[in-house]
Design goal:
The structure holds 2 protein chains of 2 kinds. Chain A is of the alpha+beta class. Chain A contains 19 helices and 21 strands. In chain A, β6 and β7 form a beta hairpin. Chain B is built from 12 helices and 4 strands. The longest helix of chain B has 36 residues. Classes of the chains: A alpha+beta, B mainly alpha.
């Protein structure tokens, strides 16, 4: 995910989800494929990635969660049980076996999943990858005090009974025994079996994450493993300093054992901590022909890149996988009419224009599921374009009607909204000073008063704490894989990892939750997709979130780089397909 | 002299102790939970509680401070079981954001900042003092006018603008100085690469500082030139450069020592903008990242380091001052 203003607005954690994809709405993906070099890919050379942040969030496969970082590491040095095919378009969302010989075999109503390891795969030190290594890698994610930030699905889904496993670092006999039952290895140490506490029809998609990847116990250094993880892919880390991450070829990797990766450059070097303006100037002046902007151009420079034909083969402007929204804290704002009035009176057009309009900023949301989740997506027709009451600049008349109704149906909440004022949690960002007045003025048109609680650090750990969350919380979410099973349950059920709506007491919740449970068990993908669409519609009808927009991101690269295309399931470039012309 | 130095060192130790207490206390009263900053989206109350124990934030404030202080002398252990590790003395803590002992991080960053500050200091002293003397010597001449313009531009342009302009026009557009995003190289390992690595950052910093020093030197030299003892020197028939070198400059430049010492100390604390623009992995960039990430051990360590540098530089300046100005006596 690019480090543009949009990302900054939401902070790291929510955007810290990998992406979405599936069958993609082609119209949204305009100009997402760069022009390929007619001569075709070449091997050799050094690929330079220029990055603004001082380092990547993590290198430890168990701790990676952002789609961009996952794509980078998976392309070059971390292999997982299954992976996405790095090809342009919708085909890129298909799962293929990576370290495994298959994409997972479910049984017991998808409560049991088996993966058999491919022969001939090794770590960079030549050690053979075994089931025990994968199992050890899985066990690490339970040491949540040390192995932080990775996806938490394994903790939710592995069947450990009522035992709370503390991971492999602590002396935890009972926990270890429960874990050993939940994850087992075959006698030949090649087949790993996951026993889940519920049916998860798409568990194998979690296999694209590093949380299910091999790690040698003897080389594990806990927190410090993040600095120098053992490679299993075609490159290994030669240098990781405050200035750069340098990858060189992993001589123990064998192409015969890897059906996905086609390494081209001899070396890949990521330069950290560069000033964003300097990065843009490097490309505007064609100074580093073999470089790629790992983030994206500054808003002020986007026109320079996208209006100039010089860059027509070296740029991508595409929809990103994130759905932005303000989560209503339903416990604090139980009045549906007021929630609806807030949605309708908001000036969506002014905010989108501020973000760069439809060309750079994105489109108005039509639900909580991103259009990039093609199969699971359909406009709910409850919110956004296509819905009866949506007016981009705000439907003040309808919103006022709802507020008038709320005055009698929920007078206490009405007083709170119009007299006391509502409090909105937002993370500190450079755009706040411009967007706050736009929103405040829009809601003032129907008498709603708001104040902003600007959280400078630890945003998500604050708002995810029910005791600290205010009336609304700004957020964004992208599916972890090509299934809304990583959207709807995560955002709208109490068991979900990112429920900011606190909607457990909503009259519609019980029925909604039952429907989610059915959808989670449904292995017929088309039927399941229909269920997610219906549940998205319910969530919008109940206005558990105030959806704002689906964003866009931009990519720029030097004239000596070929093979760039947008990798839909990871929501970023397919880094492993880049080559030096 | 020895007594004086000993006494100053003792004062310095007390000041640093007080600074460390103050900084430690300030972070305890900031309105956020440092344990909650360690686990991102997956932060749950039980995890925050576990991390609080792991990082030692569950202990009383005095004990936390004592652990920090004792760590400087005896090192410090972190974690439990097979994930346990030690930051050896002198330990300034462990950064869970950067997965490294803070002392190691400082050891990597300090040479970069030191190289930047020393090179810039030499450059700005040569240019600033040289131009200032010329402007004073040839007062109201085109040289003086030129120096005034230089001072005006130098003091008006912030370093991030100067740095960016130099980078764009000397490197990116015209390739006069090759683009260099490489890692830091020591002057002892590769002198030519070292100089190319730091040339633009030195010029950027020196441009701003030398403008100030030019103005200061010019004024001081003109003012000193009007003193009675300078007139006496002229009356004795001394040559002009003897009057300038032995009598005028010695008096005029002594106060510059204080200024240079403090400016140098400030730079050692980190030239944040210059380091950011030129991607220098020094203390300034490290501090900035630490502040943005609320990486408290790093912020604490860099603050203490900056305070130490200021205290030590003050001591050095005072001692130098005594050497430069015979009117000052120590003892």
């Amino acid at each position: 995910m690019s480090k543009l203003s949009q990302s900054k607005r939401f902070g790291r954690a929510a955007i810290a989800t990998s992406v979405a994809a599936g069958l993609v709405v082609s119209g949204l993906m305009s100009s997402s494929i760069g022009t390929a070099n007619a001569a075709g890919p070449k091997t050799g050379g050094t690929l330079i990635l220029l990055e603004h942040t001082p380092k990547l969030d993590h290198l430890d496969p168990s701790r990676i969660y952002t789609g961009r970082d996952l794509a980078f590491e998976n392309s070059f040095f971390i292999r997982t049980l299954v992976a996405y095919t790095p090809v342009p378009g919708a085909a890129g969302a298909g799962l293929v076996a990576d370290l495994a010989t298959n994409t997972g075999v479910p049984s017991n109503e998808a409560k049991t999943w088996k993966f058999t390891l491919r022969p001939g795969t090794t770590f960079e030190d030549g050690a053979k990858i075994t089931c025990a290594d994968v199992k050890y890698g899985v066990s690490r994610v339970f040491a949540t005090d040390i192995i932080t930030d990775g996806p938490a699905y394994l903790q939710q889904w592995l069947d450990l009974g009522k035992v709370e496993y503390k991971g492999p670092y602590a002396k935890d006999t009972a926990g270890q025994a429960a874990f050993d039952k939940a994850v087992t290895c075959s006698a030949d140490n090649r087949t790993i079996t996951f026993n889940l506490n519920k049916s998860v029809a798409d568990f194998n998609y979690l296999g694209t994450y590093g949380v299910i990847s091999p790690i040698q116990a003897k080389l594990d250094k806990g927190d410090a493993y993040d600095l120098r993880p053992q490679a299993t892919g075609p490159y290994k880390i030669a240098e990781n300093t405050t200035n750069q991450l340098k990858l060189v070829r992993n001589k123990k990797w064998s192409k015969a054992s890897d059906p996905i990766r086609t390494p081209y450059p001899d070396e890949v070097i990521m330069k950290f901590g560069l000033d964003e303006q300097v990065i843009d100037q490097v490309f505007l002046n064609d100074t580093m022909w073999n470089a790629v902007n790992f983030g994206g151009p500054l808003p002020a420079n986007k026109d320079a890149f996208f209006q100039d034909d010089k860059f027509k083969d070296r740029r991508i402007n595409t929809s990103d996988p994130y759905s932005r929204y303000l989560a209503f804290n339903v416990k604090k704002m139980p009045c549906l009419e007021i929630r609806q009035a807030m949605y309708l009176s908001r000036n969506s057009k002014a905010i989108l224009d501020y973000a760069g309009g439809s060309f750079f900023g994105g489109t108005y949301s039509t639900g909580s599921i991103s259009p990039l989740l093609g199969l699971d997506y359909t406009p709910t027709k409850v919110v956004g374009p296509g819905s009866a009451d949506f007016v981009a600049t705000g439907n003040v008349v309808k919103a006022q009607e709802l507020m008038d109704k709320a005055k009698t149906s929920c007078p206490a909440d009405h007083k709170k909204a119009t007299v006391d004022g509502l409090v909105i949690d937002v993370s500190q960002s450079s755009t706040l000073q411009d967007t706050i007045p736009i929103n405040t003025a829009a809601w003032a048109r129907v008498g709603i008063k708001v104040t902003y609680n600007i959280i400078k650090s630890g945003y998500y750990s604050t708002v995810l704490n029910p005791a600290k969350q205010n009336d609304l919380s700004n957020s964004g979410w992208g599916a972890d894989w090509a299934n809304a099973s990583t959207v709807i349950p995560e955002l709208f059920t109490l068991e979900g990892g990112f429920n900011l709506s606190q909607n457990g007491d909503d009259p519609a919740y019980k029925e909604f939750k039952a429907a989610v449970d059915v959808a989670m068990k449904t292995t017929d993908r088309a039927k399941q997709a229909a269920m997610w669409k219906a549940l998205d519609k319910t969530a919008m009808e109940r206005m558990w979130i105030l959806p704002t927009n689906y964003g866009k991101s931009q990519y720029i690269w030097g004239k000596g780089v070929g093979g760039a295309f947008f990798w839909q399931p990871q929501g970023t470039l397919a880094w492993g397909k880049l080559y030096i012309k | 002299m020895i007594n004086y130095i000993s006494r100053r060192l003792l004062y310095a130790a007390v000041i640093l102790l007080l600074v460390s207490m103050a900084v430690y206390a300030i972070f305890q009263f900031l309105p956020f939970d440092p344990a909650a900053l360690t686990c991102g989206k997956n932060c749950r109350p039980n995890l925050i509680a576990a991390n609080r124990v792991r990082l030692g934030f569950d202990k009383p404030l005095w004990e936390q401070y004592w652990l920090f202080l004792s760590g400087i002398f005896v090192g410090r252990d972190y974690g439990v079981g097979s994930a346990a590790f030690t930051c050896p003395a002198p330990s300034l803590g462990y950064s869970f954001r950067q997965n490294a002992c803070v002392t190691d991080l400082i050891q990597q960053a300090l040479p970069v900042t030191l190289s930047l500050a020393i090179g810039a200091l030499i450059l700005w002293l040569i240019v600033g003092i040289g131009l200032g003397i010329l402007a004073a010597r040839f007062k109201d001449s085109p040289i003086d006018t030129g120096s005034t313009i230089f001072v005006l531009i130098g003091t008006s342009l912030p370093t991030f603008v100067t740095g960016l302009l130099l980078l764009i026009y000397l490197t990116l557009k015209n390739n006069i100085i090759p683009l260099n995003f490489d890692a830091y190289v020591s002057v002892f390992d590769n002198p030519s690469k070292f100089f190319m690595y730091f040339l633009l950052p030195w010029i950027t910093l020196a441009f701003a500082f030398s403008a100030i020093y030019t103005r200061y030197t010019r004024s001081a030299v003109i003012e000193t030139s009007g003193e009675d003892y300078i007139r006496t020197a002229w009356a004795k028939g001394l040559k002009s450069n003897v009057v300038l070198r032995k009598h005028t400059l010695r008096a005029a430049l002594a106060p510059l020592t204080t200024l240079a010492g403090l400016d140098f100390a400030g730079l050692l604390g980190g030239a944040i903008l210059t380091e950011t623009i030129f991607n220098l992995p020094g203390l300034g960039r490290m501090s900035l990242k630490a502040v943005n990430d609320f990486d408290l051990p790093v912020v604490l360590a860099t603050t203490l380091l900056a305070a130490t540098i200021v205290v030590v530089m003050n001591l050095i300046v005072d001692l130098l001052y005594a050497v430069l100005d015979p009117r000052v006596r120590v003892g």
